[in-house]
Design goal:
The chain is of the alpha+beta class. It has three helices and five strands, in the order E-E-H-E-H-E-E-H. The chain has one domain: Glutaredoxin.
């Protein structure tokens, strides 16, 4: 689903990274800070800041990858899902 609330963060284009977050979530903020530190390019969506119809669509998308709908939910190359703040797993999947 296309949303107007996607934020693109420039960096080294290693993989396609889409991060679903909540603006108030500490673990989400840590994940963004970690990705920034790694210098990789990624896109994130603060799900809690979407309007109701967009939010419902995005939550359905998150649920496909993460049935418990926990945040952060990171989708890499539309193949791999990492739920939560997991530095080691993120580095392994991104081959860093």
């Amino acid at each position: 689903m296309e949303t107007t609330n996607k934020v693109h963060v420039k960096g080294e284009n290693r993989d396609e990274i889409l991060l679903y977050t909540l603006s108030t979530c500490g673990w989400c903020k840590k994940t963004k800070t970690f990705l920034n530190k790694l210098g990789v390019e990624y896109t994130y969506i603060n799900v809690d800041q979407l309007d109701k119809s967009e939010k419902n669509e995005i939550v359905k998308e998150v649920k496909k990858w993460n049935p418990q709908i926990n945040y952060p939910t990171m989708i890499i190359n539309n193949k791999t899902c990492i739920v939560g703040f997991k530095e080691k797993e993120i580095k392994e999947v991104l081959h860093l």
